[in-house]
């Protein structure tokens, strides 16, 4: 239906201390021009620590994906939406000139492609590929990039110096010496996404705190005015979107209540749930909302810090993750690590399914995304940096028919720099560079079509 009246893509629902961006609605794209409007491409990196049991990650074949190995099984329903990449290497993670430690090197080099090192006065890595993209396209969104995580190495006691913490705790690097720490607290992320940035009076802040579970009430007047001018399809889209925000908000409040009961003397309520899967889901749900509302197009997600010794009692594994990866070939320990690897992938697959179910234009939010899942080590027992476990979920479709051909396993030549993949992804984001890190060119086989 052509009404001749369109809604701005940057329309916000505003209220006291709140600013809620909207998803793409039909009324934002005039029907006569819908086929010519491109969709923004999103890019995210999801990093898991301590390597992977590769025998249960790598399929025994190349080409079209069929049955997936044990760790990747949760992605079976979305196998046509992923690219599984083999033989990608991070030479910068190897012990060329040590200083950061092996776990620090593999994480510090992951998105920078350079060897992280400890100088006489400071840490030093390199600008990460996500920040190169953010610097060029970030002005088009509210947030140039988002950095998220689930665990702090210092709080967990898993690093022995500020140098090692800087590398194991961060994926994104704004400059050679400036990492961008991830947000760990879902409440802090929620308020960053939906706050209006205004300084509130103590009275207004107290009122907002009393009504925290209903931030959408602050924008209810704007919402009602907007709904009166929307068609049935857009009303449904808006309702689904606002419902997803409300659900995340409710879960954060529930976690805060639970934490307050566990430790009533906490200085302030925290929205970090004790349950790993719930924490993961909260953060990825908010990433989905941020992509859907075009609040950002670039994100990094550190799924616990590199070198973590976290235990997984929900899997009946009380042992620390990092010590288990030094299994020395013991079958019992390998089995425990495999279960942890599969558990991480299960959480990731649930997020990818949500992106696939979120409609955008003529496709899905997943279609218009490139979500990398991987690790800076392959074999955590031997600390190897070649044939790193790497997959891309989503086609990077720009809405004009340009997208990756997914549903395949591509095995590159041995020692192919992962930075070749980054260069190719940067191209899909509209950011072109001749080289990055230790790149030798674009990654062959990522055909567009």
List keywords for this structure.
eight-stranded mixed sheet; 12 helices; alpha/beta; 449 residues; 32% helix
Describe the protein's architecture and organization.
The chain folds into 2 domains: 113 residues, no CATH class; 297 residues, 3-Layer(aba) Sandwich (Alkaline Phosphatase, subunit A), CATH 3.40.720. Helix 1 packs across helix 4 and helix 9 packs parallel to helix 11. It is 32% helix and 15% strand. The protein is of the alpha/beta class. About 1% of the residues have low confidence. The protein contains 12 helices and 16 strands. The strands form 5 sheets. The chain has an 8-stranded mixed beta sheet with strand order 4-16-5-15-14-3-11-8, sandwiched between helices. A two-stranded antiparallel ribbon has the order 1-2.
* Overall shape: globular
The largest pleated sheet is described as:
8 strands, mixed
Radius of gyration (Å): 22 Å
Range of strand content: 5-15%
What is the CATH domain class of the largest domain? Alpha Beta
Number of strands: 16
Which helices and strands appear, and what pairs or packs with what?
Layout: E1 12-15, E2 18-21, E3 42-47, E4 63-64, E5 82-89, H1 102-108, E6 117-118, E7 123-124, H2 129-137, E8 146-149, H3 153-156, H4 162-168, E9 173-175, E10 178-179, H5 186-194, H6 202-210, H7 220-227, H8 232-262, H9 276-292, E11 298-302, H10 321-325, H11 331-357, E12 359-360, E13 363-364, E14 369-374, E15 390-393, E16 408-417, H12 418-428
Parallel strand pairs: 3-11, 3-14, 5-16, 8-11
Antiparallel strand pairs: 1-2, 4-16, 5-15, 6-7, 9-10, 12-13, 14-15
Helix pairs in contact: 1-4, 5-9, 8-9, 9-11
């Amino acid at each position: 239906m052509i009404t001749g009246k369109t809604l701005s893509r940057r329309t916000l629902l505003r209220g006291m201390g709140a600013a809620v961006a909207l998803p793409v609605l039909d009324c934002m794209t005039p029907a006569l021009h819908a086929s010519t409007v491109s969709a923004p491409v999103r890019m995210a990196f999801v990093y898991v620590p301590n390597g992977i049991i590769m025998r249960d990650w790598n399929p025994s074949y190349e080409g079209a994906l069929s049955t997936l190995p044990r760790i990747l099984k949760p992605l079976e329903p979305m196998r046509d939406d992923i690219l599984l990449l083999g033989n990608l290497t991070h030479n910068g993670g190897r012990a060329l000139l040590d200083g950061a430690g092996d776990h620090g090197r593999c994480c510090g080099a992951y998105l920078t492609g350079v060897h992280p090192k400890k100088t006489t006065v400071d840490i030093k890595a390199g600008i990460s590929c996500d920040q190169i993209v953010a610097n060029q396209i970030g002005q088009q969104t509210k947030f140039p990039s988002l950095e998220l995580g689930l665990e702090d190495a210092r709080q967990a006691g898993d690093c022995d110096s500020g140098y090692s913490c800087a590398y194991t705790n961060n994926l994104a690097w704004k400059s050679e010496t400036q990492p961008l720490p991830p947000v760990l607290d879902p409440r802090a992320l929620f308020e960053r996404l939906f706050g209006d940035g205004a300084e509130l009076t103590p009275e207004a802040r107290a009122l907002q705190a009393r009504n925290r579970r209903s931030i959408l009430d602050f924008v209810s007047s704007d919402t009602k005015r907007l709904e009166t001018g929307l068609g049935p399809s857009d009303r449904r889209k808006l309702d689904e979107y606002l419902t997803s925000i409300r659900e995340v908000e409710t879960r954060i409040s529930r976690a805060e209540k639970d934490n307050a009961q566990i430790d009533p003397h906490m200085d302030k309520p925290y929205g970090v749930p004790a349950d790993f899967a719930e924490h993961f889901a909260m953060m990825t749900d908010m990433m989905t909302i941020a992509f859907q509302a075009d609040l950002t197009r670039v994100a990094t997600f550190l799924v616990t810090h590199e070198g973590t010794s976290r235990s997984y009692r929900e899997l009946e594994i009380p042992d620390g993750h990092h010590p288990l990866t030094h299994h020395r070939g013991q079958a019992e320990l390998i089995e425990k690590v495999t279960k942890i690897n599969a558990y991480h992938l299960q959480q990731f697959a649930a997020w990818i399914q949500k992106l696939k179910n979120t409609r955008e234009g003529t496709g899905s939010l997943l279609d218009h995304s490139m979500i990398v899942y991987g690790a800076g080590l392959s074999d955590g027992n031997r600390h190897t940096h070649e044939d790193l476990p790497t997959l891309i979920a989503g086609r990077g479709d720009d809405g004009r028919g340009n997208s990756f051909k997914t549903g395949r396993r591509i095995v590159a030549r041995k020692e192919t720099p992962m930075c070749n993949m980054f260069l190719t992804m940067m191209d899909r984001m509209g950011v072109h560079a001749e080289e990055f890190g230790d790149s030798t060119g674009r990654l062959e086989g990522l055909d567009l079509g």
